[in-house]
Amino acid sequence: MGSLVGVGGPLLSIHQCHRKYGGWLAPHTSSIPDPSSSSSSSSSSSFYSPPSSCSSSLFLCFTGSAGKRRRRGFRGVCVAMADANKRAVLVTGAAGRTGQIVYRKLKERWEQFNGRGLVRTPESKQKIGGEEDVFVGDIRDADSIAPAIQGIDALIILTSAVPKMKPDSNPAKERPEFYFEEGAYPEQIWKRKAEEYLADSGIPYTIIRAGGLLDKPGGNRELIVGKDDELLQTEYKSIPRADVAEVCIQALLHEEAKSKAFDLASKPEGVGTPTTDFRALFAQVTARF
User: Where is the NAD(P)-binding domain (predicted)?
Assistant: First the structure.
């Protein structure tokens, strides 16, 4: 049986879909039907046909903050697996600050994974080394990313909606300012719809809603899981990107991470015991969504 793990807030979703579902969910939120609508149905543009050589896929989606009440939190060539025991994993947003960490971790664990990346521009490809396993494409264009997806066993999506910068804002001289219409946060609505759609799809999933991302080393902190934004009421509201990246990788390896949704944060370095048992961490979560 396939499964899906997601991290939101950063929204992270890992989704493993069996061939019986007829295709792969396209990472384009505007194609996601409204789960509240009884008339909504999946259009052909929302799904990719899986390669004949691939019986299942794992989809990991990491976008920005996806919380119910949260506005910020923290988005051709068939490469055949050389080793049947390895899993081919694609990381979108591989040139981003979190994406680079996940991509590097996959490459370091070459005995377990055949990692590859997806970036938006040739410049971004060169930024992370320009290897042949890094593809250039746009997640809004299904055809452009088809070569990257072909033959994979897992898809880690680290892309996110980004607000528009104000025209008179100069980030080179001052802290940049962004434009939001009053009371309007449409990207959060669609992220939530994506979570609901995936959770209601019948596909096992995991959604990880991480706190504010820190550019700090990973592996040095005790990680904390919670539900329904309860961690926002505590002093623990952030987590290093490197730790989120590690949770992404670990979610691919443990059944305890499947069919669950949880908030994720960390204690300050030096407080508590650094988390090393991820099976036990995932097992702390028992609620479905």
Answer: 93-163, 180-254
CATH classification of the domain holding 90: 3.40.50.720
Tally of structural domains, the chain: 1
| Non-local CB neighbours of 54 within 8 Å, separated by 6+ positions | 151, 152, 153
CA angle 92, 280, 25 (to 5 degrees): 30
Assign 274 a pLDDT band (cuts: 50, 70, 90).
Answer: very high
Residues spanned by the domain of 145: 5-27+46-283
Q: Is residue 40 part of a domain?
A: no
| pLDDT one-digit tens code per residue, 108-167 | 999 999 999 999 999 999 999 999 999 999 988 999 999 999 998 887 878 866 656 556
Tell me the pTM.
0.70
